[in-house]
Amino acid sequence: MPNAAPIIHTSAPETDQAIDRTVPDFPVAQSSDEDNYFQTNTAPQYLDELRKETSEFIRFHQATGKKVVLVTSGGTTVPLENNTVRFIDNFSAGTRGATSAEYFLESGYAVIFLHREFSLLPYSRHYSHTTNCFLDYMAEIDGKIEINPKYSKSMLEIYQKYQHARDQNLLLVLPFTTVNQYLFSLKVISKELHQLQTKALFYLAAAVSDFFLPMSKLPEHKIQAQDHNGGKLVVNLDPVPKFLRRLVDSWAPGAMITSFKLETDENILLKKANQALDRYCHQLVIGNLLQTRKKEIVFVKKEGEHPVVWYRLTDEELANGVEIESLIIPNVIKEHEEWIRLHK
Amino acid sequence: MPNAAPIIHTSAPETDQAIDRTVPDFPVAQSSDEDNYFQTNTAPQYLDELRKETSEFIRFHQATGKKVVLVTSGGTTVPLENNTVRFIDNFSAGTRGATSAEYFLESGYAVIFLHREFSLLPYSRHYSHTTNCFLDYMAEIDGKIEINPKYSKSMLEIYQKYQHARDQNLLLVLPFTTVNQYLFSLKVISKELHQLQTKALFYLAAAVSDFFLPMSKLPEHKIQAQDHNGGKLVVNLDPVPKFLRRLVDSWAPGAMITSFKLETDENILLKKANQALDRYCHQLVIGNLLQTRKKEIVFVKKEGEHPVVWYRLTDEELANGVEIESLIIPNVIKEHEEWIRLHK
């Protein structure tokens, strides 16, 4: 069969001569890679509005004195057409991000929630992605529609937390869909968060594509089959520059930065986490495996020999609905407090 | 720049010699293509359960004497890995399918709703994909959570319709995610619907991928960048066999079949619709453009010279929330009644 190994690109494109091939992962982005990205790809039209909202939110919390965390959540898309019918997506319902945001709010943080549109949101997540329809939470009682009494107690508690976050202006919800929207938004938000120095925390849980189709390569219309011999489709994607290093170096130096590493092969998880720390010099990588991500995660820290700490739920805790974010967030906050203390 | 036209596959794979290159679109699937698909790809584990539910639903409505429509809705995914982190998706929130299902139910049809999991559902669609959170429909009144009085009247009406469909067993909701799950499900449901002969209607609104990665090509784990020189990713996909013809010929001959054609280039829409009719010999293609799909659609019929009828909403109707499905469904039903009459 031809193309039996469809994922392997067998000829080295000339453009990549600058790449250090000694690291068995993406080359570290040359500083020019990111600049070039923002020069050759178009900013989303709403970017100024997003900057304004973010700036007001941060100024507000400079006054309240709260620590502010940027939680990114959900998967980015890579459109394969300009009028997008087809796109490449990253698996993520946004559970980790939406759940973590709630725990940060309950721990006294103000939260900027940069999420994939229609992925899970803090609080509403408890109801929105259930396979049984939203209307199943309702009931008709004396000709009036009500919350089904079965659910009303727990829903009231969640509703009150949600209202508190809204009333106190503790939660700024910003959406993205494409990886391009995500990258431009991340840059803008980071530069605003820079004002908070060490009080800013980055919690980058979004599943960001490692690949993208430069706008210069995007076909205008839906890909037509006659474009391909034999109706085959070959999609040829460029690597997304690694913006994490730029975030650490120049967008928001002083902030504490936590990134995630999701793998499916446990044999490479720690190696990849350590590589990320060595490369980007940020403070913390939280590693997890797709298969067990709700039961166990691992902290790999920058300091010294990259100490490794696993956090696990027992099967009993899992069965009782304990969420692993109840272990993650307090420990991330400990790291953040230590970070603030060290940089006083 | 290398790969400047990333979507074009420049060498004709040997496997495609049988293909008729005179038609400027996908080759007609050789009968062996579909058989080969079902032999070389694994059926979803839940398929027998799905067959059982479908069979009971259809037997129930053989008794009620209702016409039964299969509405397919939402986009299919093409996993790029076996432990799926990345996948190719088709743009679709499921609006057309979910909305159409409601109009079919209100017109007395029983509906099998084969939909992309977490895409819009009949009735709950009015609330689930709003960007303002589901909890925004609630209110705390005297320490009790209630539906916000602003929304309760319209929500009650929708709830009652939803309950009616449930109580009368008029709606069978079946999910899929991957194109493989969709194809196996379509085959099973079609063979069950065959019992209803002309009383069965197919309304295939799902955005089904034209391409897939055969299981034999799927990498087990998350694609690692070191697999690619320079961190580029090349995805090489095979065409999905065209099952519509098999549906017409042998799965459910006698049923009326309506398919959709979504394009972004209006200059090719009618050509593609006519090609589909000529190739698959089904009864009706409903054409629409991504940009205007909520405002205008076109019927292209099999009979004679493929008569073309446009249905459009005025801007005023659009502004008043009139849904174009209120024009589509009654006219599809007219075609179905004619189909039944002709085959008495």
TrEMBL record, chains A, B:
Example GO molecular function term?
phosphopantothenate--cysteine ligase activity
One of the Pfam families matching this protein, by short name: DFP
Which residue numbers delimit the DNA/pantothenate metabolism flavoprotein C-terminal domain?
67-117, 193-310
Q: Which Gene3D superfamilies match?
A: CoaB-like
Q: Please, one GO biological process term?
A: coenzyme A biosynthetic process
**Family, per the entry?**
Belongs to the PPC synthetase family.
Q: What is this protein called?
A: DNA/pantothenate metabolism flavoprotein C-terminal domain-containing protein
